[in-house]
Amino acid sequence: MDFATYFPIWDKLTPAQQKKIEDATYFREVPKGMVLHSGETNCLGIVLIESGQLRAYSISSEGREVTLYRLFEMDTCIFTASCAMPNIMFDMVIEAEKDSEVMVIPPDVYNAVLMESAPLANYHNQVISSRFSDVMWMMEQIMWKSFDKRLAAFLLEESALEGTQSLKITHEKIANHMGTAREVVTRMLKYFQNEGLVKLTRGAIELVDEKRLRALQED
Question: Whose CA is closest to 177, among 192, 204, 206, 155?
């Protein structure tokens, strides 16, 4: 595989450092729904996503989920190597949202190169900062943006990701993404349907008026 596509600083590593990573990295198939990392599991390592889609989320003490960010093809997942980041003090769950194929760099190998290479350390910190920005943006949305606008944005994002206006997703799954109760999602979707924005069928949500959903999102 071409590690330079995942690490822009790859050519700044020494040949010995590159070989150490290349020799240790292994391939793994991850079926949809499989948890790659949680606060209760061992430190997996750095995950390089070749195909598929991962979801990072947090769980409240009441068991309510909220999606923090998603990872796609060619993304790098660093938080699956939390043992390489001893100062990270919060739990995050990372699971496969779709059948995925990933490459894994073992944490001990990655950490050894990280300690030797200033370019890799700088890139590592940049990725962490970017992910924390994603998390803070999501928290701001939850705290300050009304639920109808958040739901409109979520439906539009799902439609773009799946390439269809007919979304095969349950109200429970939407609630898990958005950190709320299923009943809240159901009530708002019924309101959207009454307003002619969506059409609800068994096991699916059809986006009827994307233009108005986008206007609601951006209002």
Answer: 155
